[in-house]
Specification:
The protein has 238 residues and is α/β, with parallel strands linked by helices. The chain has a single domain, classed as 3-Layer(aba) Sandwich (Glycerol-3-phosphate (1)-acyltransferase), CATH 3.40.1130. It contains seven helices and seven strands; from the N terminus they run ααββαβαβαβαββα. It has helices at 2-32, 40-56, 86-91, 112-118, 129-144, 169-177, 224-237; strands at residues 60-65, 76-80, 98-103, 122-124, 148-151, 180-187, 204-210. It has a seven-stranded mixed beta sheet, with helices on both faces. β3, α4 (112-118) and β4 form a beta-alpha-beta unit. The chain is globular, with a radius of gyration of 18 Å. The chain starts with a helix and ends with a helix.
């Protein structure tokens, strides 16, 4: 037990230190590259951060696949299932450029949230209809500028590991803006960040898999539920 306490303390200290370094690295590149309006260079700092967090945590073992399905020259609405806060770390292992849609409370977390603000991710205020409309307006602006947007269409994390029903917004937006859906499957992260304790208990194998993009050119505005179900089915089948 003592060994787990010491090791867990060391892991959290290391993660915190790396995240503080990430914040200052992002600040530095924003100062050095003020012309980077989309904050792509700042966002790219998260790639080494995620790799370091995973590599330095002996309790995490992450495999990445399907990167051949990403076309860096294309814009996507990225749709991922959601199991844990660890999802935020491992999605960066794909090295994709995107803007998250994330709840406002995350932006208030010291350093982690500050980094999200520096990268210009999209804030969502839960329960505020005006905020939801604002999110989709901002997402549409990013898409038109060539920046992908990432949604967790389940809305909240799955507590059981079973995929929850998907909300409609991302799929309506994809059809409206004529942007392909890029499904991303996340598996095994449910136990990556302990619930109810700060102690890491056991080694967690996790996977992130990028599936082939779904072309929306054949969908009309009323077909959003068909696109939603097709995406969810593809993720479940994977």
């Amino acid at each position: 037990m003592l060994k787990k306490v010491i090791l867990s303390l060391a892991i959290w200290t290391t993660i915190s230190t790396i995240t503080i370094l990430l914040y200052f690295a992002m600040l530095l590149v924003i100062i050095l590259f003020p012309f980077d309006r989309s904050r792509k260079i700042a966002h790219a700092q998260c790639f080494w951060w995620a790799k370091a967090v995973v590599w330095l945590n002996p309790y995490w073992e992450v495999s990445v696949s399907g990167l051949e399905n990403i076309n860096a020259k294309r814009t996507y609405i990225i749709v991922a299932n959601h199991q844990s806060l660890a999802d935020i770390v491992i999605v960066y292992l794909t090295k994709m450029q995107f803007k998250w849609v994330a709840k406002e409370s995350l932006f208030k977390v010291p350093f982690v949230g500050w980094c999200m603000s520096l990268a210009k991710h999209i804030k969502l205020e839960r329960g505020e209809f005006s905020s939801i409309k604002k999110v989709y307006r901002q997402a549409a602006i990013w898409l038109k500028s060539g920046m992908s947007v990432l949604f967790f269409p389940e809305g909240t994390r799955s507590e059981t590991g079973e995929m929850k029903d998907f909300q409609n917004g991302a799929f309506k937006l994809a059809i409206k803006e004529r942007v392909s859906i890029l499904p991303v499957l996340i598996k095994g992260t449910g136990g990556a960040i302990p619930k109810g304790t700060w102690l890491f208990q056991t080694k967690i194998p996790a996977t992130i898999k990028v599936l082939p993009a779904i072309d929306v050119s054949g969908f009309s505005p009323g077909d959003f539920s068909k696109l939603r179900d097709m995406t969810r089915s593809a993720l479940k089948a994977a």
